[in-house]
Specification:
With about 750 residues, this protein is α+β, with helices and mostly antiparallel strands. About 50% of the residues lie in helices and about 15% in strands. Among the domains are: about 395-460; about 475-585; about 590-720, Immunoglobulin-like (Sandwich), CATH 2.60.40. The protein is globular, with a radius of gyration of 30 Å. The two termini are about 40 Å apart.
Length: about 750
C-alpha cells in the first residue's frame, strides 16, 4: 500500500481511525480511547490518593502554601492580590511583583471557601491525577487519532526520571520536590504547544493559542519560555513557508505577551532587583548535567522509566520512544507533526544537556542568569511522551490490522476451490499473525504492569510517610505550632534551625524551618527560596552571633527541649510545651537608627559576596552600616565619610509599629544628630518612606536593607511598600488585544475571500 500524504502516514491517524470505526459495529472500538483515558485517571486517583491529605510539607510546596495563604488573606480583606509585600521568607520580598503568581491568586480565591491547606492538597492531587486528560486533548489538537490519544494518555502517568524535576509525580508529590507551580505549567505546556503549532502551521485560531501562551507564562515563566521555543521550531518546519509562519508566530507571540503583560511588565521592569545568588551560580540548576550524562540517562531509561525506590522496571516508555524516533525519521519529510515532535525533542535534549552544549546561545538570551537549564528536561519528556504514544498506537493498530486482514483473507479463500497446500499456507500466515500479535500484547502489558507497579510502590511509600507525618503533626507538631503563635504575638522573626546550616531539628520528616512556613510564621532559615536581595545574607545568619539576632530582628528561637540556644546567656526561656521550648532574644525591633559609612559597590550577582565582610564582622553592632551603591547607581551620602563608628548612635527609636503583611512599618525617633533610620527588611525600589509626612528618597543599606536619612530632632517615620498601580490597565489591555486577535484575522480572511469571488 502506498502512502501519499501525512494523513495516511499512520493507521493511527484520524482518517484511518474513522475508517476503522465505520468498518465495524462494535461500540467498544469507539469507546476504547475514552476507556483508556478514564482508566489512567482512575488508577491515578487511587495511586495518588495520599496527596489529598492535609499534612506539613517537606519540600518547596510549603513556600507555595505561604503564597496561597497570603493571597487568601488579601481576598478575604477585599483586595485582589496582584502585588504587595510578602514578609514570611527571605527577610521580606515583593513576591507577587516578581514571581509567577496566577496559580497562587486563583488557589487563594478557592481557599477563601475551603481553606488554604485543602486548596493546596486538592489542586496538587487533581492536577496530577487528571493529567491524562490534558495529554489526550493535546494529541487530538495535533491531529492524531482518538486511539493515539487514549494510548498516550495511558502512558502519561508512568513517566519517572532520575532527576525528579520533570513532568512526573516525583516533582509534585509530598516525598518529592513540591514544585506546585510547575504542575500548572505541566497542564498548559502540552496544549499550548499543540495550539501554537496549529496556528502557525495552518493559520487557525490565533487567539486561542495566544490565550494559552499567556496563561502558560502567567503560571510558570520557564514553561512559557519552553512554549516560545516550540513556536520557533514550528516556524522552521516548512522552509518555503517561513515568511508566512513568522507572521503567524508574531501574531500569537504578541497576543500571548499582551495577555500576560499584567505580570510580565512588572517583572521585567524590576528584574535588576532580584538576586542572582552566589550559591546557585555554578551548579546543575543553571549548568544542567552535561550532554554525556543526559545521553547516558536517555539510553539507559533513566529519563522516562527510572525505578525510584531501587526496584526493577521495564523500560516501556524508552522502548516506545525509540520506535517513535525511528518512525519520525522515516516520515520526516512527509508528516509535519512528526517533524515537529522530533525537532522539539532534539531542541529539548540540547537545552537539557546544559551550558557545555548551548552555553554560547543561552548566554546571549535575556535573563540567561536565571535560566534553569536542568528544567528543560520537561521539553524532552513531553515531546518524548507524544512520540512514544504515537509509536505505541502505530504498533497496536498495525498488528490489529494485520491480524484482521490475515483472518479475513484466510476466511475468504478457504471457501474457494483452492488446493490444500494454499489453505495450509494461509492458515500458517494467520497463526503467525496471531502469535506475533499475542506476543507483542503480552510483552507490552507486562511492561505496562511493571511500570504501574513501580509507580504504585513509590506512591505507597509516599502514603505511609504522609500518614506518619499527620500523626506527628497532631502531636509534637501541634505543640510547635502553639509556640509559634506565642512567638508571633511578640513580633519579630522566628528562628528554628536553618536549611543552609543543615538543621537536624525535625517534626518527624518535616524540618522545623518548613514547619514555620506551614504555620504562617515570619521565619528565618528556610533559605534561597526566593530572589529576594536578602537571600545570600540570610544564608550567612549565624545563630552563635548575638549581633545577627538584632540585625535580622530575630526575637524568638524554638528548639527541642533540653537544647540551649548558642546565645543562651542573652536568651530568656519563655515556655516549654511537649518536645519544644521557646526562647526570646532582645532586639531593637524592625527599626533602628544608625550611622552610614562609605558605600559598598554591588549588583545582583555580587551583592552576597560584597557584604560578606560586613556580616562576618560586627554586623553593625557598633552603629555603623555601609551604604550600597547598587547596579551602577550612586548611593546616598554617608553620615560618616571616614567610616569610623561613633561611641553613641545618632538616636533611638522611641515607638515603633509594623504591619508586615501590608508592607507598612513606622514609628517615632529622637536623633541628637543626623542619621539614618534602617528598616530591617529587604530593599526594593518600591519602598516609599516619609519623614513627618514628607516623602524622602530611600537608601540601600548593608546587607540588603532599606534606610531613610533623618535630621536631628524628633520625627515620625513610615515605610510603605507601594504596589504596582497599573495592573488593571494591563489586564484590560491584554483582554482587548486577545479579542482583537480573535476578530481581526478572521475579518481580513473573509474580505480576501469576498475579493477573490
Amino acid at each position: 500500500m502506498s502512502i501519499s500524504s501525512s494523513q495516511e502516514v499512520f493507521v493511527a491517524d484520524a482518517d484511518a481511525d474513522k475508517a476503522t470505526l465505520e468498518s465495524t459495529s462494535r461500540s467498544w472500538v469507539a469507546l476504547m480511547p475514552m476507556v483508556l483515558v478514564a482508566l489512567a485517571v482512575l488508577i491515578n486517583l487511587w495511586v495518588l490518593r495520599s496527596e489529598r491529605l492535609v499534612v506539613t510539607a517537606v519540600n518547596d510546596q510549603s513556600v507555595h502554601r505561604l503564597f496561597v495563604e497570603w493571597a487568601r488573606s488579601h481576598w478575604m480583606n477585599g483586595s485582589i492580590p496582584f502585588d504587595g509585600w510578602f514578609p514570611n521568607l527571605s527577610l521580606g520580598y515583593a513576591a507577587f511583583h516578581h514571581y509567577q503568581v496566577l496559580p497562587h491568586i486563583i488557589t487563594g480565591a478557592v481557599a477563601t471557601v475551603i481553606g488554604t491547606n485543602r486548596a493546596m492538597a486538592w489542586t496538587n492531587y487533581l492536577g496530577m491525577a487528571l493529567w491524562p486528560i490534558c495529554i489526550y486533548l493535546t494529541v487530538r489538537i495535533f491531529g492524531f487519532s482518538r486511539v493515539t490519544g487514549g494510548i498516550t494518555a495511558m502512558l502519561a502517568p508512568l513517566i519517572s526520571s532520575v532527576t525528579l524535576y520533570g513532568f512526573e509525580a516525583g516533582s509534585y508529590a509530598w516525598r518529592g520536590n513540591g514544585m506546585w507551580s510547575q504542575l500548572w505549567g505541566m497542564w498548559l505546556l502540552p496544549i499550548t504547544l499543540a495550539l501554537t503549532w496549529r496556528a502557525i502551521s495552518q493559520g487557525r485560531r490565533y487567539a486561542l493559542a495566544a490565550v494559552f501562551l499567556a496563561l502558560t507564562f502567567s503560571c510558570h515563566f520557564l514553561t512559557g519560555t519552553m512554549a516560545v521555543l516550540g513556536m520557533g521550531v514550528w516556524v522552521l518546519l516548512v522552509p518555503r513557508e517561513i515568511p508566512r509562519r513568522i507572521g503567524r508566530a508574531c501574531l500569537v507571540g504578541i497576543g500571548g505577551i499582551a495577555g500576560a503583560s499584567w505580570l510580565l511588565l512588572p517583572v521585567a521592569s524590576n528584574s535588576a532587583w532580584g538576586l542572582s545568588s552566589q550559591y546557585n551560580g555554578d551548579t546543575y540548576f543553571f549548568n544542567s548535567h552535561g550532554r554525556s550524562q543526559v545521553f547516558s540517562w536517555l539510553i539507559h531509561g533513566k529519563l522516562f522509566d527510572y525505578a525510584q525506590d531501587g526496584g526493577t522496571r521495564w523500560p516501556l516508555l524508552t522502548v516506545f520512544l525509540g520506535i517513535g524516533i525511528v518512525l519520525a525519521i522515516t516520515r520526516f519529510t512527509r508528516d509535519e507533526r512528526m517533524r515537529a515532535l522530533l525537532s522539539y525533542f532534539a531542541l529539548g535534549f540540547l537545552m537539557f544537556s546544559g551550558k557545555d552544549t548551548v552555553g554560547w546561545l543561552t548566554s546571549r538570551l535575556p535573563g540567561s542568569d536565571q535560566l534553569l537549564l536542568h528544567r528543560f528536561h520537561n521539553m524532552v519528556q513531553i515531546s518524548g511522551l507524544l512520540l512514544a504514544g504515537v509509536a505505541a498506537s502505530w504498533l497496536a493498530q498495525g498488528l490489529w490490522s494485520w491480524l484482521k486482514q490475515s483472518k479475513a483473507y484466510t476466511g475468504a479463500t478457504s471457501t474457494e476451490s483452492s488446493s490444500s497446500e494454499m489453505r495450509a499456507r494461509l492458515a500458517r500466515n494467520f497463526a503467525l499473525a496471531s502469535m506475533t500479535t499475542t506476543l507483542v500484547v503480552v510483552i507490552s502489558v507486562a511492561m505496562l504492569v511493571s511500570a504501574w507497579q513501580e509507580r504504585d510502590t513509590y506512591m505507597s511509600g509516599n502514603g505511609t510517610w504522609v500518614n506518619a507525618q499527620i500523626v506527628a503533626d497532631g502531636g509534637p507538631g501541634k505543640d510547635f505550632a502553639a509556640l509559634v503563635d506565642t512567638a508571633r504575638s511578640s513580633g519579630g522573626r522566628i528562628y528554628a534551625g536553618s536549611l543552609s546550616a543543615g538543621s537536624p531539628y525535625k517534626i518527624l520528616y518535616a524540618a522545623t524551618y518548613m514547619a514555620l512556613a506551614h504555620d504562617d510564621a515570619e521565619g528565618i532559615g528556610f533559605t534561597l527560596r526566593t530572589l529576594s536581595l536578602s537571600g545570600d545574607a540570610e544564608v550567612k545568619f549565624n545563630d552563635k552571633n548575638l549581633n545577627h539576632y538584632d540585625l535580622f530582628n530575630v526575637r524568638s528561637i524554638i528548639l527541642p527541649s533540653g537544647v540551649l540556644p548558642d546565645v543562651s546567656l542573652n536568651a530568656v526561656q519563655i515556655q516549654s510545651l511537649g518536645a519544644w521550648t521557646l526562647w526570646s532574644v532582645r532586639t531593637t525591633g524592625y527599626l533602628r537608627v544608625v550611622d552610614t559609612g562609605p558605600a559598598i559597590v554591588a549588583d545582583q550577582k555580587t551583592l552576597g559576596v560584597a557584604t560578606t565582610d560586613f556580616l562576618l564582622g560586627d554586623a553593625g553592632a557598633n552603629g555603623l552600616v555601609p551604604l550600597i551603591a547598587y547596579a551602577g547607581k550612586a548611593s546616598g551620602p554617608p553620615t560618616r565619610f571616614d567610616g569610623v563608628a561613633q561611641s553613641t548612635p545618632p538616636g533611638v527609636v522611641t515607638v515603633q509599629f509594623g504591619r508586615p503583611d501590608n508592607g507598612v512599618f513606622g514609628g517615632r525617633v529622637n536623633l541628637s544628630r543626623p542619621g539614618v533610620v534602617m528598616l530591617k527588611a529587604s530593599f526594593d525600589p518600591r519602598w516609599q518612606a516619609t519623614v513627618d509626612g514628607e516623602q524622602v528618597e530611600t537608601q540601600m543599606l548593608a546587607p540588603s536593607f532599606v534606610g531613610v536619612p533623618v535630621p536631628a530632632g524628633q520625627h515620625t517615620i513610615e515605610f510603605k511598600y507601594q504596589s504596582f498601580k497599573w495592573t488593571w490597565v494591563l489586564v484590560l489591555f491584554g483582554a482587548l488585544a486577545l479579542i482583537a486577535l480573535a476578530i481581526v484575522p478572521r475579518r481580513l480572511e473573509q474580505r480576501r475571500g469576498t475579493s477573490a469571488t
